[in-house]
Design goal:
The structure is a homodimer. By secondary structure, chain A is of the alpha+beta class. Chain A contains 13 helices and eleven strands. The first copy, chain A, has a domain of 42 residues: 2-Layer Sandwich (Wheat Germ Agglutinin (Isolectin 2), domain 1). Chain A is globular and about 60 Å long. At the A-B interface, strand 4, strand 7, helix 8, helix 10 and helix 11 of A face strand 4, strand 7, helix 8, helix 10 and helix 11 of B.
Chain lengths: 338, 338
Amino acid sequence: MSEEVSLSLDEVRRLSIDVLEAGGLSPDHAKAIAAVVYAGQRDECHSHGVYRLLGCVRSVKEGKVNPNAVPDVVDHAAAVVRVNAHYGFSPLAFERGRPLLIEKARKLGLAAMAINNCYHFSALWPEVEAIAAEGLVALAMTPSHSWVAPAGGTKPVFGTNPIAFAWPRPDGPPFVFDFATSAIARGEIELHRRAGKSIPTGWAIDSEGNPTTDPTAAMAGAMLTFGGHKGSALSAMIELMAGPLIGDMTSAESMAFDEGVGAAPCHGELILAFDPKVFLGADAAQHVARAETMFDAIVGQGARLPSQRRYEARERSERQGVRIPKVLYDDLKALLPR
Amino acid sequence: MSEEVSLSLDEVRRLSIDVLEAGGLSPDHAKAIAAVVYAGQRDECHSHGVYRLLGCVRSVKEGKVNPNAVPDVVDHAAAVVRVNAHYGFSPLAFERGRPLLIEKARKLGLAAMAINNCYHFSALWPEVEAIAAEGLVALAMTPSHSWVAPAGGTKPVFGTNPIAFAWPRPDGPPFVFDFATSAIARGEIELHRRAGKSIPTGWAIDSEGNPTTDPTAAMAGAMLTFGGHKGSALSAMIELMAGPLIGDMTSAESMAFDEGVGAAPCHGELILAFDPKVFLGADAAQHVARAETMFDAIVGQGARLPSQRRYEARERSERQGVRIPKVLYDDLKALLPR
């Protein structure tokens, strides 16, 4: 087993802020990014934990991301908040726009936030969870880079296009899911390639459009969506809603914009918030209880709710801190000033 | 080949209205239901065509559905329309609420319509298409009856829970999808059972929770969602959004409410509408053109857009009318007054 380093959650946050500030991110960006990296590490989503700091700092060095961008929050329409991230990372833009999104949803019943011109490297669940923490239902989606072929096609059009949803629960953390509409994360194919392993069928096709189990052929060809033509339709919806509808790039456009640098995707994000209190008025508690009955029916038969594993990890981390590979820790330490 | 009858589209509409009125539906309900049955037959969605009239009339006879219900449209909140269908069929409720939904979306940027206490037998695509015809983006979802097990489970919790989406296109019909989040329609399993055929793995499990290819065991067990845990998460979202969020029944509650009659599911429906003109202002045409570039990239590689087959059928039907089995035609004629 490879060597590991134990860190308290406070140390995770401190280390993240220090690495980001040393990497040139403004204190506001460093704090906002550290918060999502912290959440990822705490919940044992390792690919979205402190590991991501390396890519963040690299993206800044490559000159694509503006490390000092100040997001502009615009009260665009009665039910629409727009945030121009000015080619900075997304977490600060989300944080800055969130209060107005929530205010609008509480007033109107529902509202949308469009984040434009942002670089995205983080998962969507911290965002929908933050909205659910205010008692609202949240739905978020974003395109990425065009690596995924449409159903029946052979060439990439869609991104891995994640969609995330949160439903607040009266006792304990919300019901949350966050999944890519590709069959698998792109990183998984890369991991198989490095390990010299073949990939399962259904993940990808080669550049001729034939099913492949060869990760190198898959990387040169196209990934597939999950769930066949249904997943493909959903992925198209995400392209449209979090692209043209909000005046931002599709995954193909974002990929072209990247010019082969391989930075985090630059694009838009759409977040919807719904206030059950407005929908339901005095009956809200009664209907929320009916949702709990459904959750009980799922958990009661031994199935898991989508975020259950993550919440178990969270409890563990809050009790005993986290462990990260020493190699990663040393790589991060090397980014700090001497 | 079994005998068929040719009908013009006008004859389809006339026959539908006559059968429904003879079955006791009010003229307003008959007209609204006939419009969606007409659309289904025209687009060669045979299971949602005139065949559905038989089930409609049966549901009224069984005494579950109110054939004279007058839907109440309530301006519930700034961005929320509620329609109480008063236990009538859904199409009239949708029609009555739609103008206010569209008005709100145009004013605010987006809006929601919650239809409550309605009996649903129709597809969702005619509804999202009707909203897209006004230049708006639409998303609709509804639970059904609890026939579908959650991922990792063995007992039914979810309905077949369809979700539909429409994106208006400048030239020609909108981009539309409408799919069940179950692996397959329940009717498909029943068709296999009647034909004495086995079903593919991945459609259902038996009452012990084991994969089955036996349609009878599947009907007694549980259907599966499409796309594994991702489809299951999406199905849960539909339960929550078009159930408790709008103060209506989950699929399990709707099934219990049915008391074994086997009528169309009684429940709620959530429809969201987004106005690209509000989101995009003067830049709307430019961004809509970017969506077209994406559609071109899909169609240009020989893949199909979700509703392409349906639109081809529509053109055909508008040119030459439709053909229905004579047996079905005779069954419908038998419902008319002598």
